[in-house]
């Protein structure tokens, strides 16, 4: 490095030091706000001396205190916490058709377990004493829910409407229904008679339709929004291998489409307080119910075939649908309507 370059750098350094001394070791920062109007104070000056800059401590945010594992965190301003509060059906009144046994009774128990008063409707004069007494014992007294039985064939739509109206009057309203009544007939398509078709549709489709309509009328009348659950089947989506049941499968497909249309009509809450009636389907796969066990007696090897066709390698128990009906009947599914909840162990997924 030559002498002229060294001299130039020394001169530059002296000039810089001089400027700091002239400004009394002050750093001037000017900021301009684009939001200030013309004529207002447009410039602010912040003066920080070098001494203050060196003495200013670095402020750090203190770490939060360690959380407690059992601490209840307030949500939306509430200081309390209730487990599974969205599933709570305390004070609600529901009807379950086909509620004397099988899937219908299991779903009725689930609603009562969540706190609902549930009326089980079926065509038998009285439910099986052993089955019914066991169901009553399984409903915990602490839940606040209860089970009640009423004889009713859904084909008798006139009396069905009267019964539903009387239940609503006695309880100042209804909050929903689970339409689970259904029958099955294994007959080749070319051997069906018109009266066989009419009977199956009268129960599986018309009975479901009239049940939902009767309940909805009372929900509108008493302005009690709630949930209607129609029990369809994966058989409404596929043709079951090894099971010759064209009318049953067709009726369940109709129920799935029915749910969409009823949801379209009834889901929106109206200014007069009516509406707000959600409508959804549950489409189970093969379940070990009395009706299905009868199919196994009629078709040897059917149980093993169905198990082989299932991703889980087994058939469902009725208890495995308890959570689904609690979900659809309660506020836990408050934004779900017109849907079809398929619970089939993966049978239709491959």
Condensed summary:
The chain is of the alpha/beta class and 350 residues long.
Oligomer kind: single chain
Shape: extended
Number of domains in the coordinates? 2
Terminal CA distance: 80 Å
Please tell me the overall pLDDT: 85
Share of residues in helices:
25-40%
CATH first level of the largest domain: which class? Alpha Beta
Number of strands: 9
Strand order of the largest sheet: 5-4-3-6-7-8-9
Q: How many helices does DSSP assign?
A: 10
Radius of gyration: 35 Å
Low-confidence stretches: 27-55, 67-79
Structural class: alpha/beta
- Can you summarize the main beta sheet? 7 strands, parallel
CATH superfamily membership of the largest domain: NAD(P)-binding Rossmann-like Domain
CATH architecture of the largest domain: 3-Layer(aba) Sandwich
**Fold-level CATH name of the largest domain:** Rossmann fold
InterPro entries: KR_dom, NAD(P)-bd_dom_sf, Sc_DH/Rdtase_CS, SDR_fam
Pfam family, one: adh_short_C2
Keywords: NADP, Oxidoreductase
Family: Belongs to the short-chain dehydrogenases/reductases (SDR) family.
């Amino acid at each position: 490095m030559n002498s002229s370059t060294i001299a130039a750098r020394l001169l530059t350094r002296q000039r810089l030091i001089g400027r700091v001394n002239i400004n009394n070791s002050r750093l001037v920062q000017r900021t301009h706000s684009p939001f200030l109007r013309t004529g207002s104070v447009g410039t602010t000056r912040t003066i920080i001396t070098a001494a203050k800059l060196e003495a200013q401590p670095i402020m750090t945010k203190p770490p939060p205190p360690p959380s407690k594992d059992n601490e209840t965190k307030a949500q939306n301003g509430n200081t309390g916490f209730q487990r599974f509060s969205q599933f709570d059906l305390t004070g609600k009144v529901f009807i379950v058709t086909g509620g004397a046994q099988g899937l219908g009774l299991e779903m009725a128990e689930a609603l009562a377990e969540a706190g609902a008063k549930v009326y089980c409707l079926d065509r038998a004069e009285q439910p099986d004493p052993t089955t019914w007494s066991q169901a009553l014992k399984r409903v915990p007294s602490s839940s606040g829910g209860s089970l009640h039985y009423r004889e009713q064939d859904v084909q008798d739509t006139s009396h069905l409407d009267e019964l539903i109206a009387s239940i609503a009057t006695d309880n100042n309203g209804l909050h929903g229904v689970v339409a689970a009544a259904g029958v099955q007939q294994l007959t080749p398509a070319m051997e069906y008679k018109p009266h066989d078709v009419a009977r199956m549709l009268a129960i599986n489709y018309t009975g479901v339709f009239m049940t939902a309509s009767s309940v909805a009328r009372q929900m509108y009348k008493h302005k009690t929004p709630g949930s209607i659950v129609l029990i369809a089947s994966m058989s409404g989506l596929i043709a079951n291998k090894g099971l010759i049941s064209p009318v049953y499968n067709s009726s369940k497909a109709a129920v799935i489409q029915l749910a969409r249309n009823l949801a379209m009509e009834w889901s929106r809450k109206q200014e007069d307080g009516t509406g707000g009636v959600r409508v959804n389907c549950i489409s189970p796969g093969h379940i070990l119910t009395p009706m299905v066990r009868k199919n196994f007696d009629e078709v040897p090897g059917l149980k093993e075939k169905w198990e082989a066709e299932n991703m889980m390698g087994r058939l469902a128990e009725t208890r495995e649908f308890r959570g689904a009906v609690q979900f659809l009947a309660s506020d836990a599914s408050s934004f779900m309507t017109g849907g079809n909840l398929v619970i089939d162990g993966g049978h239709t997924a491959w």
